[in-house]
Design goal:
There is one protein chain. By secondary structure, the protein is an alpha/beta fold. It has two domains: 166 residues, D-Maltodextrin-Binding Protein, domain 2; 99 residues, Periplasmic binding protein-like II (D-Maltodextrin-Binding Protein, domain 2), CATH 3.40.190.10. The protein contains 13 helices and eleven strands. Strands 5, 6, 7, 8, 9 and 10 form a six-stranded mixed β-sheet that branches. A five-stranded mixed β-sheet has the order 2-1-3-11-4, sandwiched between helices. Helix 2 links the parallel strand 1 and strand 2. Helix 2 packs across helix 10. The radius of gyration is 23 Å and the shape is globular. The protein binds D-malate. D-malate binds next to helix 2, helix 7 and helix 8.
């Protein structure tokens, strides 16, 4: 009997410790965030992902009352940064800026990917989407997309096409374009389209597809020429620039989506805090107007939440698996 009482007391003590432990974790979570949060951007500084992430980070940081530090970890089409992010502690203090390439196409392009986008991450919120512009230097001999396509068809692999590496959105769109126009380019991979654009302006490469938010200042400043847009309709920010779908390539659309993912195991209360901060930012017209004025499409609030963003990530994985298989691309 005494033995049984001791066992019961020991069990009761164990439960008390467990309850106290659970309470301590909850306290840490309910104070979230009580220090700076890091967002890993898997591309170089100055590129479109970096630019969108920094704009959103600044506004979300205001809502959170803590700084957000952007840590650029570029390489291998963004998969190096994704691998690093997947291995961080799931406490909400390190988050990942994932996109169409790293979270949807990469599993079908790399044989030895060190992370699984769906198993190792949970979606937090989706950023606005950004269409692309087909860009050449302002003194390029090509005045229209048709002229460029004709030259590419006549001279296979002669024209150099800058991308942000295998599986990046600039690479996926470029492969899609090459297949559509039945031409061969020589793809030149960079650690982001920021450095690729520097080389485009410097004359080291001939052409690239980059997102409108970073293309805009260079086109407005006369350093680059936009031959066409990959959006559904023309954009007032790019006066006189046609879309590819309206003339040369009906049905050809391309845009980059991205958003914040947390390592799997991140407490749901943390995800809720981050989502609410972003929804508050989206309700601020000066913030959304600033994005739109940079050529970025602001999505409706119900599309950006974790549930719809998770469904969207899964559907994009299925889409890119199909596209990559149908294009006969062998994973590397
Ligand atoms: C891409 O092409 O996938 C990225 O948007 C590149 C970048 O952000 O530099």
């Amino acid at each position: 009997m005494v033995g049984l009482t001791k066992v019961i007391l020991r069990l009761a003590a164990g439960v008390a410790v467990a309850v106290a432990g659970a309470g301590a974790v909850s306290a840490a979570e309910s104070n979230y965030p009580n220090r700076a949060v890091t967002w890993i951007v898997p591309f170089a500084v100055g590129g479109p992902t970096d630019a969108v992430a920094r704009t959103v980070a600044q506004r979300v940081a205001t809502e959170l009352g803590q700084s957000i530090i952007v840590d650029n970890v570029p390489g291998a089409g963004g998969t190096l940064g994704a691998t690093r992010a997947a291995r961080t502690k799931p406490d909400g203090y390190t988050l990942f800026v994932g996109h169409i390439g790293t979270m949807a196409a990469a599993p079908y392009l790399f044989n030895a990917l060190n992370y699984d986008p769906l198993r190792d991450f949970v979606p937090v919120f989706r950023f606005p989407d950004t269409p692309m512009a087909l860009l050449v230097r302002s003194d390029s001999p090509f005045k229209t997309a048709s002229e460029l396509f004709e030259a590419a068809r006549k001279n296979p692999e002669k024209l150099t096409f800058g991308t942000a590496g295998v599986g990046s959105s600039s690479h996926l769109a470029a492969e899609h374009l090459a297949a559509t126009i039945k031409a061969k380019f020589t793809f030149v991979p960079y650690k982001g389209t920021g450095p690729a654009m520097t080389d485009l302006m410097g004359g080291q490469i001939d052409v690239m597809l980059d997102q409108t938010n970073v293309a805009l200042p260079q086109v407005q400043g006369g350093r680059l020429k936009a031959l066409a847009l990959t959006s559904q309709s023309r954009m007032p920010l790019f006066p006189g620039v046609p879309t590819l779908t309206e003339r040369e390539l009906p049905g050809f659309l391309a845009s980059t989506w991205y958003g914040i993912y947390a390592p799997a195991g991140t407490p749901s209360v943390v995800i809720d805090v981050l989502r609410e901060a972003y929804l508050k930012a989206l309700a601020d017209k000066s913030f959304t107007d600033g994005l739109k004025n940079n050529g970025i499409d602001v999505l409706a609030a119900d599309q950006v939440k974790p549930g719809p963003f998770g469904d969207f990530t899964r559907s994009e994985q299925a889409k890119w698996q199909r596209v990559i298989r149908d294009a006969g691309i062998t994973p590397q």
